[in-house]
Sequence to fold (1508 residues):
Amino acid sequence: SQPPPPPQPPHNHHHHHTTFMDRLGSVKKKKGGKRSRVSSGVRESSFRHTFGGTRPEKLSFYNLKLATPNPRSIRANANFCVVPWSNGVGGFAYIDLEKPGKQKDNFPFIAAHKTTVLSLDISNTESAVVASGARESVIKIWDLSSHCEASPVTAPVKELTGHTSRVTGLNFNPFISNLLLSFSGDKTGKVWDLEAGKEKLQMTGFQGDLICAEWGTDGSVLTSSKDCVMRHFDPRASPTAAAEHSALHKSKKGFEVAWLGSECERIVSVGWDMAKREVALWDLKKMDQPLSRQVVDNSSSSLTPFYDDGTGLLFLVEKGTLTHYYEVTRAVPFLHKLSKYSSPTTHSASVMLPKRVNNVNKCEVARFLMVDDSRIEVASFSVPRKHNTLFQEDLFPPVPSGESSQSLLSWFDGETKPVLTISLKPSGVKSVYEVSAADGGRSKLVDSQRREGKTKEEIDTAIRVQEAAPTTISKGPVELYSKGWFWNGWVPSYLQIKPEALYCFPGPDSASPTHVLSFSSEFKEAIVSASDSLNLQFVVNDLKSLSLLFKASSQIERDLWISSLIAAHKSNTSPTPVISVSPIPDEESLPATEFTGARPFGYLEIFQPGYIYSSWKRNYLRVNDRDILDVTASETASSILYEIHLDKILACFVNDYDLRTFTIATGARSWLLKSNTKSSTKEWVSRLEALRVHLQSLQNEAGGESSKQIASVADVTQHYLTVKVGIFSWPKKKWAVSSGDTLLLYYSQSSLTPDLSFNAATLKKFIIDPTSSSPTFSIHSHDGTYYHFTAANIAERDAYHLWYTQATVVNQSNVDISEKLGIDLSLLSLSTRKLEGKLRGVLDLIDVKNGKQPVLVRTRGRRKLKSFIIPPSASQLNDGNCFVLDCGKTIYQWNGSSAIKHNRAKALDVASKIRMKERGGTSTIVQIEQNTPHPKEGPFWEALGGRPSSIPPRSLLPKEEDKEQFVVSLYRILDEAVNLVHEGKSPTHRMLQSESCYVCVRGGEMWTWIGRDSDQDDRKLSFVVAIKLQEAIVGWTSWARVNEGGETILFKENFSDFPGDLMISVTRAPISANTTPKKEQKPISIPSLLGMTVPTYSNFGDKDGGGGLQAWRIENYKKYPIEANGHLWEGDSFLFLYQHRLGYQSLSVLYFWQGRKSSINEKGTAAYLTKELDDLLHGQGKQVRVVQLQERPHFLSTLPPTGLVIHKGNYNAESLKDGKTHIFEVREEGAKASLRTLEVELSSTSLNANHSFIIVTSSTVYSWKGEWSREREVSHALLVAQSFSDSLELPLEELSQRDSVSHIFPGLLVDIYAKKRSSPVDVRMFEVNNASGVVEVVRIPDVRQTLLNPRKVMIVDDGARVWVWFGPGSKIIEQKWGLMTAVNYAEFAPHLKKTGGEVQVTLTYAYKEPREFTVLFFGFTEALFPRGVSAGDVIEEDGREALASYNKKSFTFAELTAATLPKAVDPLNKEIYLSDSEFTSHFKMSKEEYERLPKWKREAVKKSAGLY
Fold:
């Protein structure tokens, strides 16, 4: 927030305009013009009336025997509390907070230690895990999830040893599971990994026993000890304290400390100033004096601080009866005393419960447990509110969820992730920020200002500032004081702050600045001018004593300019990097323009207008690294003639009248340029336009307008128009250029300064009569003037109307139009089903697929072919169009007698797409000609309500249909806001974003599209928007819902470029055929399978991979540069840029590598950033997606000699230094014998005699050679192991299979897979697929676990045996054909060695594979199994015997009704396997009679027979 504005200066009577401060209004007035009294210096607070109280006895815990050696002896989470037990031995009580009241006499305490329990803690993330410590040095970890009176827990799950004296403190990290902090009388602190049960870190330097310790959200630790020193540790960085501070309080009794807020920047301490208790607030960056210090009282008992970050309330609980509470703000004096609460009983220890247990309905802001010897009282603090039916969001911001925010491994690796939070807002309850003040609503700004400690007057000013002023400024009009030869004065100017410099332009539309001050090398300061009586002037000074004096329109605007300039100078972000820019070419040896880099440069001719004659002048142009087009006299000239800022360009386009010339247009002037060839001109325009669009998109994102559309070169329209201003002026001919949201009018094509310019956002009206045959339209400008235009024809007129429509949508795409639409928000309380019931013409896509709801589609046009859903009525037919009627199992194509072939082809295309892509080829297409009777046309006419007596003629010719403008409106629903993001021609599918919902409207046809990541509230709101939009549609309408990824063919017709929406066929099926023929099942050819080869990939003309390689890792939607050493992590995605010379050209290849455990967000970000990087290369790069273990040979060739090394987990350059044992397998495989190194699971079965391995321990690196590993694998393993040895500074030792490895894996019985492969032939894998209606077998290029399709059958040939693998979702027909193919393959494959007369065929199942099968797959791991699935008992069956069971045709009724069906039985059609006699016996009819029954009757008969 901005500082309060300075006092308003006296009004200057020479200024007649209203200033910014006048609009702000610094003094409020009452009715009658009298000034009201403004509160002075009274601090506003939401917590002034906070009060405390004790809950009734029945809600406390009593009849206990407790011992509390210190004020922090009791610990609690949201469900349980623990407190030492007073029984003479070292026990503690574990109390369920859901069971208050009198506790049993024989309370089942935990007998934990032999001596008194000195320290306890209970995990906040694992509610039943407790740590205890006593006088003995052992820490015990307890899992009390099963603890009860009948079966008490008697033994800990872990005992931690390492301390040499009593354990004085225990602290679980409240945000990370299994992370424990301990302190001891041996003057050390330790950090424990409870998963491993090991000490990981240590803290030293203590000179006294611990008083208190507290974890920070950043992983640091705050401690206080009896040596009166506060220590701040970062245990992951150093065992010694990062800072030590003593004398926080004068007394030598010691003090307690706590964090103030999650930022870990401020702390609170409570201690004594000799005889007085006091509290002090400190800033860790400035510990020389406190932010605030206040005396509490004169009592001698200790105080324990508890702070609630959500409200800023600080509670000081004494060992006695009193609790003092304060409010902490960020403004002086920082600490404000609220009140104190006196408990009815004394207590010796206390703890504040997590805020998520508080009662939000009663505005309970804090809840404490307070302990005396026999009871635990519950104290509650509340803030009274009148409207307690609302959720008081100011009292209850998001709170920690109690879930672990990250893994232990990532934390110990130095990563710190934010705390996971949840909202306490009850479902269906509105927040105080969502209702008006009259209904009890509140202002977020007011509450935040109160938290800052502002007075009422300051809050009132902040409200007015927020309503009237921006918070930053990057560009805007000012006045510049200019000194001339004859005159000095103020001239209008326009300032713009860019990352690299401050630019001063003559006007907002100018592209060439008059002054430029670089922030890095010239800018010095920006200050208020002392000579200005109105205080509106500011001075910008540079390092060369140049001063520029500017005048703003208000004091606040002046302050914004100064603060924004200072901020830009401090940040001084780097300009966009130049990627692969080649050296400037020699003019004699290369063409005039060189386009090898992202930024073009070269010689062009620039049109120079003159008073007597005009000419073309040759100049040298180059886009510099600040995205400015510099114009110089020649390539070697040092002085710049002028600059053109690319972000000021409205459009850059080739001129229609001369394709060698192009125009760079701004609002102030234009440049006309000419190249020597048409292709060169096109390339210049393409490069400049791409840079311009990129710069404007960056500006939009910086301004919070990331979704705003930007006009591209394709949006430019240029024609001659006749213009008439008003009614009485003479018409004049103007050259018109429309681009983006701007329309420019020039005197002629060669004019460089526009006579008129219009911005679509400021136009009052664009008037056009779409039914008129006259090519005229009018514009009503913002100043009230009417401009009348006449175009050459209707098409040109419509082009400008389309420009206005699209430009208006561009400006409205970020405006919430929900109020404008009149959305009824009360409908959001209804269920989705009820909302659907309020819509008209609902198309249930399931009913459509099942034939219960016919859909009629009309195709029209000649060149611009489109399809539309229309009412399913015969009255809609005409003789000039084609129609498709979707009846589920049958799709009818009805062709009018006058329909042209293009229309017929479009109709067949729609029908074929529906059949193949939505029905899986199971539907039948029936083609009907208008005047040709058809035997199957009866159901067609029945579905349309009967055959009409006559078919009317078409209303428009095909060419006229092409000219019809069909407007598609697209409404986006995101974060409960509604935006009109497109209105015009068919939009691109790329506008559909996964986090949003959309309503698409075209005529009476309406669709709701649901993004997969959209919010539930937005989904319901999209239904409400559809209901409202249907109110404006007169007549018939249809509505359907589609989900992302399940878009129908008819939905895709609304978009211009939906993937997979290409024409399937443009030829009409023969009329005599009537139905689309089904595919014929052919036998699987074994020679064809053996002849299948894996695809070969291009090396992009690069023979040796000797070019340059850059690498980035993807994290948090950004890319970070890393060393391109070939080391990757399977939990992340990476981006590579490889560049090499190919003759005289520079070639770039962009690889984005996706680890198999990389998140969806990271994979998507990698693809997006690859495209972004390619845009900087101006589309010259080759984009290639690379999946883990499916890398192309060329990608592997670009890596260093050690090749590709894939680590487990997420990116961590120090992952091998964690002291753990790591195993890497080295394999040579693939067509080019590619070598890869992969980290595998550390288990007893990891080693394999067929390959080489690398084993990394904390002391040695081993290169392990399998007995039958290939020679290249052995040498490569040794090379990689040597690199590990060098980087880790560990010795390297070579081992063979015969050497013992027991010393490497202590306690692990190593089981080496020692079965030699029978054949050197690479493993082959095939997939059996029935998706097309016939069974096909295709070869899978890579033998990978991730390519084992769980919905299919796979065949694997290992060179000695043929495996058949059944996925759990595979079909019976695929299983049968898979076994049949495998048996035939085993008989005829010549490379298979037959033992005992035949090659073994083995059947196995997903997740039950034997080890002989899994070793064929590089890096096979159970971690890739679906969630909840684990490896079952191994199954190996003889494939030939299994095939025999599938060939069985008949089964008895008993077999078909058994709990486990025979493998060959289709569970949906059991009746077909019965013999004729058994069928008649159970069904009471013959099979022929059964087949003649309707389908629904068959189902009923099957149920009665017991075979359903």
